[in-house]
Task: inverse folding
């Protein structure tokens, strides 16, 4: 049984305390073979902490992958260069400007604009015109987000994490982006947080089948500084080896934190919070994480905005010719 952590399921974590080792329950759900953790690997990376520079991530792929397999996530600094970040920020500004009169979630010119309601539920009215929670499929407009999805720098690291030593083989699976989106948080606690969840549970059937067969890697790229003060991206380390959470969690998840928090606060919490972390990210830094890793974030109580681009990659078999 996973031990209950003292922190609530949605409140922003204080800076991470030293981890303690607790036993956790395996749920029995199948974890894709290619991205299954080497499970409790004992080899420690030579790098201090959890972050690698882009150069070190390429030079020391073994340490990078050892950390990812054990913890379910790893930070790589400077994955997106300054020029790309500038273009992504400008593209996001333009999309937010386009939605400045929206009071309900809607699709417009191929992009889905999810408005920010008081509870976080996308079916409810926005807290104000133009308040956004997510921007779905911005790459359909081309430009900077299409370039981000195709980024060889990102895909090179993602392949190494997912496929390991076979990543450059001609016959090895390739990666395709099943989901791209921007998660936005206005300052001054305007919106709700994101409750703990596993992205794999929300994949559409084809992408889920590919993930189950070949694995996958998810990536968060910071467009603005992200930290524990402005609703930064939080991970529950090592939860990727526990299998998939019960269907009740996915069914309860509609952006609202209360329903998920109730499940997490019961006598047998869904996720173990012992290795909870909120890494500080500069624009261009990325978190690569396992699609089964539980993650979320709190409200943005700062005076700064926080925007992150999220990419969900799944393995895709290539037919031999």
Result:
């Amino acid at each position: 049984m996973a031990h209950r952590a003292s922190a609530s399921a949605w409140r922003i974590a204080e800076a991470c305390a030293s981890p303690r080792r607790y036993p956790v329950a395996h749920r029995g759900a199948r974890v894709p073979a290619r991205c299954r953790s080497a499970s409790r690997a004992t080899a420690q990376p030579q790098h201090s902490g959890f972050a690698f520079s882009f150069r070190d991530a390429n030079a020391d792929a073994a340490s990078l992958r050892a950390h990812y397999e054990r913890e379910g996530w790893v930070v790589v600094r400077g994955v997106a260069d300054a020029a790309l970040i500038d273009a992504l920020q400008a593209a996001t500004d333009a999309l937010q400007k386009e939605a400045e009169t929206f009071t309900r979630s809607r699709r417009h010119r191929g992009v889905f604009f999810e408005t920010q309601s008081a509870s976080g539920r996308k079916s409810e009215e926005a807290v104000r015109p133009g308040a956004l929670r997510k921007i779905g499929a911005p790459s359909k407009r081309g430009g900077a987000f299409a370039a981000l999805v195709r980024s060889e720098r990102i895909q090179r690291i993602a392949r190494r994490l997912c496929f390991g030593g076979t990543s450059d083989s001609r016959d090895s699976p390739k990666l395709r982006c099943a989901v791209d989106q921007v998660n936005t948080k206005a300052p001054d606690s305007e919106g709700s947080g994101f409750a703990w969840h596993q992205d794999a549970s929300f994949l559409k059937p084809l992408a889920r089948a590919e993930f189950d067969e070949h694995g996958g890697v998810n990536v968060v790229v910071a467009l603005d500084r992200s930290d524990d003060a402005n609703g930064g991206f939080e991970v529950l380390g090592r939860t990727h080896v526990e299998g998939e959470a019960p269907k009740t969690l996915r069914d309860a998840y509609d952006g609202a934190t209360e329903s998920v928090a109730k499940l997490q606060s019961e006598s047998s919490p869904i996720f173990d919070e012992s290795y909870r972390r909120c890494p500080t990210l500069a624009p261009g830094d990325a978190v690569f994480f396992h699609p089964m890793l539980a993650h979320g974030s709190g409200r943005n109580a700062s005076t700064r905005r926080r925007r992150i681009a999220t990419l969900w990659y799944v393995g895709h078999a290539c037919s031999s010719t």
Remarks:
- The radius of gyration is 19 Å.
